[in-house]
Amino acid sequence: MIPNLVLFTVFGGLLGLRSLGVSALREHSWVVFLRWALSCMFLLTASAHWGPMRADLVRMVPPGFPNPGLLVTISGIAEIAGAIGLLIPRVARFAAGGLVLLLLAVFPANVHAAQAGLSLAGERVSPLIIRLPEQLLYLTAMLAAGIGRTRRSKLTHAEAV
Question: Could you count the other beta carbons within 10 Å of the beta carbon of residue 153?
Fold first, then answer.
């Protein structure tokens, strides 16, 4: 829930500030704002890989996967790298692609956690009926952040009408 709140708050806040006329945001398209919002979300989720929630994340790794602690560490590092990459225009598309692959790679952990009734920070994980649409939202947002235009088009009034 908190990652969703961060994603929507940052994205909506940046759009709102631009619509209020903040000059530093005027040139940027919604794609740039989406990259910033996703970056904030992934930095937040990455922080859990080393904090008090680490043990919960390790338990989420499905049985049969080798060295769950190492996998959690690697996925956290990948989230940080991807979050930073989203903010660097030259590599943002590659970062978005990498994060798409990461989201697909960690989805079995989400399935396992939901089926096993595990919890994160004392709260039961989202059931698959909620987690699957969330995952599709993240994948869609990441694809849009990776392939979308980063500059606002400057239409004349006649073209806009």
Answer: 8
Q: Which residues pair with 119 in a beta bridge?
A: 124
Every domain of the chain and the residues it spans: 2-160
Q: CA 10, CA 5: separation in Å to the nearest integer? A: 8
Closest CA to 153 of 39, 31, 21: 31
Q: How far apart are CA 161 and CA 153, in angstroms?
A: 14
CA-CA distance, 56 to 61, in Å (whole number)? 9
Alpha helices for the chain (secondary structure H) = 2-19, 30-47, 54-60, 68-86, 92-116, 128-147, 157-160
Backbone angles phi, psi at 89, to 5 degrees: -50, -40
63 DSSP β-pair partners: none
Identify the pLDDT of residue 36.
97
Mind listing the pLDDT tens digit for each residue in 115-150? 999 999 899 999 999 999 999 999 999 999 999 877
CA distance 31 to 12: 12
Is the pTM for the entire model greater than 0.85?
yes
Q: Residue 160 pLDDT > 70, yes or no? A: no
